[in-house]
Amino acid sequence: MEFDTIAAISTPMGEGAIAIVRLSGDEAVAITDKLFRAPSGKPLSSMASHTIHYGHLLDPETGSVAEEVMVSLMKAPKTFTREDVVEINCHGGLVSVNRVLELVLRSGARMAEPGEFTKRAFLNGRVDLSQAEAVIDLIRAKTDRAMDVALGQMEGRLSRLIGSLRQALLDTLAQVEVNIDYPEYDDVEEMTLPVLIEKCAWVESEIDKLIRTSGQGKILREGLSTAIIGRPNVGKSSLLNSLLQENKAIVTDIAGTTRDIIEEYVNVRGVPLKLVDTAGIRETEDIVERIGVERSRKVLKEADLILLVLNSSEELAEEDIRLFEAVRGMDVIIVANKTDLPQKLDFEKVRKQAEGARLVTTSLTRDEGVDELEEAIASMFFEGHTGSQDMTYVSNARHVSLLHSARQSVRDAIDGAEAGVPVDIVQIDVTRAWEILGEIIGDTVQDSLINELFSQFCLGK
């Protein structure tokens, strides 16, 4: 498969030590040779693959030096795209990297589309679709565990498992074909149906295992949307600052200080939390504070986890009880703060209102109780840890949807076989499951979906 040569800036824009302009395609080396001059005078095309060379880029129109660079040469097929790849390392200023890109584009390269380098890796057989999608998960990973999961998928862990499921279904289809092609053997169908049911049941159980990881996988991939709620001045902003280990929110003794939503990501025992510090929810005549309270109510409805903060030095108020009612049925951890002050809060009454929700006591001014809170969060969603290192997580919504569809097709095949449906009819459901699983790794996916998926990538990746 041949493509034109593409180029893009592969490092973040801004000031830095190094910036990289990447080229990929059959003309990548020839285009660079028009611009690059090494001290030896040798063209890049004569140099060994997977080497890096110092020199200068010259403007072909004026002959003047445009930039001092290091050029990495990687020849096909041992590259990410399985095409010739050149990476021009220049100084990391905005003017410098844009000048290099402009020279490359003027010399015959085309500006890459978002994700086009990874798309070419997929189209050229370097990675399958699930591995390609893991690239963007790796870039967006917010914790070490999320990065490990993305790396595992990039290395083909999910691909291998999906491949084994498809092979089992293919073996089953082959057995069905024997039954159809040689109907004169009366015992073939008797042999075929038990094998079909057994193999399909195994595939169904393996798909179920993957689907069960999707909740944790989604959390690792996207983060756990966590709303910190409570009456004004109970310590919500102090809790945010304690979890972040920095002063992001203003903390005062004045009720209603937080007027708007504050969002920050934090790593809690390998679980990425998208912490949302809300305005204290109460009735108020202050117009600005009232807007903040309404936004808080909206965040509350969209949250995966609620941290409901109470003041242990005060009795349970009517506003607290209304908050308990608002989060009924949700995943909630009660944080009884200010334990350094004389206790007036009736914990038994709180537990009755909480209906089984875990209660953690803290004194945020003394930095006490934060470890217990982090343990409670990890225990609620990952039973205290984020799973074994070799576990295959499914976090991609597209993959989850396809797994549900494949499981249903396998279940239909099993039900049909057990009900005595002719084996050639059962074959249709088995084939459908095989095709759906193929969409996960890109074997049976449509071009329009491929274009949509890679459009979500950044330029230069």
What does this structure look like?
This protein has 461 residues and is α/β, with parallel strands linked by helices. Helix content is 46%, strand content 17%. The chain has 16 helices and 13 strands. It has helices at 28-33, 94-106, 116-123, 129-140, 144-154, 157-181, 187-212, 214-222, 236-244, 287-302, 318-326, 347-354, 370-382, 397-418, 423-441, 447-454; strands at 6-9, 18-24, 36-37, 51-58, 65-74, 85-91, 110-111, 224-230, 262-268, 271-277, 305-311, 332-337, 358-361. The chain has a seven-stranded mixed beta sheet with strand order 3-4-5-6-2-1-7. It has a six-stranded mixed beta sheet with strand order 9-10-8-11-12-13, sandwiched between helices. The protein is flat and about 80 Å long. 40% of the residues are buried. Mean pLDDT is 82; it is low at 247-261, 280-286 and 384-388.
Name a few traits of the molecule.
single chain; 461 residues; alpha/beta; seven-stranded mixed sheet; six-stranded mixed sheet; 16 helices; flat
What is the ordering of alpha helices and beta strands? Answer: EEHEEEEHEHHHHHHEHEEHEHEHEHHHH
Which structural category fits the helices and strands? alpha/beta
Q: Characterize the biggest β-sheet.
A: 7 strands, mixed
Through-space gap between termini: 20 Å
| Unreliably modeled segments | 247-261, 280-286, 384-388
Summarize model confidence as the mean pLDDT.
82
Into which percentage range does the β-strand content fall? Answer: 15-25%
Helix content: 40-55%
- Total DSSP E strands: 13
What is the topology, as strand order, of the major beta sheet? 3-4-5-6-2-1-7
Overall 3D geometry?
flat
- Rg from C-alpha positions? 29 Å
**Number of contiguous helices:** 16
